[in-house]
Structure formats: structure tokens, C-alpha cells
Amino acid sequence: MSVTPQSVILAGIDGSNFSDAVIDYAIWLSKIHQSPLKLLHTIEHSHHSEQVHHEGNLTPNMKEHLLDELSDEERQESKQLIADGKRLITNAKQRAEQAGVENVIAKQRHGTLPEALSDLESEISMVVLGAKGEDHQGSKAGLGTQLEQAIRAISKPVFIATTSFSEPQKLLFAYNGSPTSQKALNLLKKNAFFDSQLEIHIVSVQKSLADATNLVEDARTELQAAGLNIVAKAMTGDPVKELTQYQQEKAIDITMMGAFSHGKLHGFIFGSFTTQMLLESTTQFLLIR
């Protein structure tokens, strides 16, 4: 995948603890791609009145007055959300410009993040999101409530920031031969994402060690031919356990893998491998759909 001049690195920011990490990784990716950086803040309205109402006791005049109050509350809340969002994206834009990104676009829009990504997909080369949003910060477990929906909303690669920025040195490519992992392999071959100096660890975990070995050797051959710095490892066992242990042992910075290859119903019944990896790992992620 080559990045066209019109394509942007899009960073979704919401004021959570992960926002700075999202901005910094987006800056890093924008510089590598020499691509414009678009900072997006979405405003999702979910007004809850603080007034206590007893509608059964209200006269018609009182009900009319109450509706006026609710309307005023909603207007004030909307104004506050817009003002807070403007400060957020203005600060983020300044951070990106000070870091040397020449083309920075800051946008605010109403609606949910998945809706926005779906609408903007044609202009996006990659999306950068935080593992947890503002509604989930402070929680030690779980992911951001809109994260899976956002990833599923588009077919473009999604970079997930899980920790504060540190320039990556090692990438783990979890390869199982599936269509999405083959797509990831092809993107790596084209050097679509990262600097060629990045050390790429091709890891395959299969029931059969012979199958895993065949997979990593095939991938190694293709990526080495593209001039990439490759380490290969074939393993058997539980994929989540083996991959997360490998991440820790080798000090992996980014894990690249196919995401949500099964439908929502399958994930609901059996659990999603993508979600398990996100929950169990401390690396950043590059998810391919």
C-alpha cells in the first residue's frame, strides 16, 4: 500500500489519558509516511438532566417550563462540549506542528467515532486510536467501549496506542497464513508502514510445529527479498500465551496482526482472539482488516 498525497494519518483524540500517546504515535507515522496528519475529535451527545422531575404531578404550564429548562441544559452542554473539543484539538495541532509535522488538519464533528471513520475512510491511509477512551480511563481492565466498533467500521489499518510514546525498534508480525495476515505480509513487503531499520519478528503459533515452520520460512523469504531485517520463530501452544510471552522476552514494541477475521456473533460466543491479545499485551498494535 503506497500512501497517496491525499491520504492522511488520522488520529482520534478524546482527552483521555491515551490522547498524548495517540498524538505522538500519529506524529511518528506521519513523518515516516510524509503524509498529512488529521486530528479528529467527535462529540457524541448523550444528555442527562440533573433536574429531578415528577412528571405525574406537573401541570401543563409546568411541563412547558420544564421542556424549556431541558432545552437550555442541552444547549449549554453542547456549547461546553464544543468548546472543550476545540481546546483539545488546538493543543494537539500545536503539539504536532512543534514536532515538525508540516500539514496538520484539526477537525471536530458530531456523532460517534465509528460513524466518522466510516464516512472518512476514502481519505484515510491509517487510523491511530487509544486502547481506552475517555469513558474508560482509570479502568484496569477492558478496552474502550467504541474500539471494536471503530476497528470494524473500516478496512484500513488501525494503530492502537497502549502506552506513552517510545520510538519503536522491534515489531512482532503474528502470521498464520489467513487472508488478513497475508494482506499484512504484502503491506510489509511494500514497506508501507515503517522504517526499514525496524527489526521484524515473524512468529507463527500452530498446532503443528512443521506447519508453523513452513509459514514463517515462507514469510521470511518474501520479506528478506524486500530488504527487511527479519527474525523468524515457529511455535506450538496457545497463541495468546505464546505470543504475549514472546513479546515480553524480546521487548517487542509493536504487534502487527489480522483483526476480527470472524463475525461479531463468533466473537460473542467464543471470544475474540484480537480482543484477548489487546487485553493481555503491553505492546502497541497494528491491526489489519
What gap, in angstroms, lies between the N and C termini?
Answer: 13 Å
Low-confidence stretches: 47-56, 136-140, 265-271
For the record, the CATH class of the largest domain is: Alpha Beta
**Main beta-sheet annotation:** 10 strands, mixed
CATH architectural label of the largest domain: 3-Layer(aba) Sandwich
Major beta sheet, strand line-up: 3-2-1-4-5-10-9-6-7-8
Structural class: alpha/beta
What does this 3D model show about the protein?
The protein has 289 residues and is an alpha/beta fold. The chain has 2 domains: 8-45 and 81-159, HUPs (Rossmann fold); 168-259 and 273-284, Rossmann fold (3-Layer(aba) Sandwich). It has helices at 19-33, 60-98, 113-120, 147-153, 179-189, 209-225, 239-249, 264-270, 273-280; strands at residues 8-12, 37-43, 104-110, 124-130, 158-161, 170-174, 199-205, 229-235, 254-258, 284-288. Helix 1 links the parallel strand 1 and strand 2. The model is unreliable at 47-56, 136-140 and 265-271 (pLDDT under 50).
